[in-house]
Amino acid sequence: MNGMTGGTGYSSPLTTTPSYLRLIPAGLIGFVAIGIIGLVFYIAFPEIKPTTTLQEAEKREPVSNILPKDPVAETISPSAPLKPYESVSKTLTPEERQVLDVLVAHKGMYLQKYIRKDAGLSRLKTHRIIARFAERGIVTVKQSGNTNEVILSDWLKDSTLNSR
């Protein structure tokens, strides 16, 4: 009478698995999913590379041989004090240096939209560079219609106009 209702209290060991054994397939599925995501990121973003060991880094060519030499730094003797423009120029990226050179070429005052064209950079890149310059006190920015007027700071303008 109790055959189908389960009233005997007997359960077959083959039909019931302990709960901790159910975690194994879930863990394997999780590892496979993480592996696939890692592979996708490795393919999509090849610039993310694992770091090299110290022995591999020592075998490489020194950075000073790879980078182009800065003509401004070569003309300055080590004992001579650096001018503000030269000091600032050493800390800039090549794109930032392009923007600064455009400003210097136009006597320290130029519209942002024209800086973008002369430097050959995108609008966003130019905006971010000028925003960093403003934070560092290299330039001041004034709204001028639908663009910004970028003005080189006096302390930097004086040293650039006198040296060129």
CA(first)-CA(last) distance: 107 Å
The SS-based structural class is mainly alpha
Which series of helices and strands comes N to C? HHHHHHEHHEEH
Shape: elongated
Number of strands: 3
CATH superfamily of the domain at 68-163: Winged helix-like DNA-binding domain superfamily/Winged helix DNA-binding domain
Fraction of residues in helix: 40-55%
Q: Would you state the CATH class of the domain at 68-163?
A: Mainly Alpha
Architecture of the domain at 68-163 in CATH?
Orthogonal Bundle
Q: Which sheet architecture does the biggest sheet show?
A: 3 strands, antiparallel
Mean pLDDT: 77
Low-confidence stretches: none
Number of helical segments with 4 or more residues: 9
CATH structural fold name of the domain at 68-163: Arc Repressor Mutant, subunit A
Approximately what portion of the residues adopt beta-strand conformation?
5-15%
Please state how the strands of the largest beta sheet are arranged side by side. 1-3-2
Query: What's the alpha carbon Rg, rounded to whole Å?
Result: 32 Å
Can you walk through the features of this model?
Helix 6 crosses helix 7 and helix 7 (about 110-120) crosses helix 8. The model has no long low-confidence stretch (mean pLDDT about 75). A hairpin with a 2-residue loop joins strand 2 and strand 3. The protein contains 9 helices and 3 strands; from the N terminus they run H-H-H-H-H-H-E-H-H-E-E-H. It starts with about 20 loop residues before the first helix and ends with a helix. A 3-stranded antiparallel β-sheet has the order 1-3-2. It is mainly alpha-helical and about 160 residues long. The protein is elongated. It has a domain at about 70-164: Orthogonal Bundle (Arc Repressor Mutant, subunit A). Helices cover about 55% and strands about 10% of the residues.
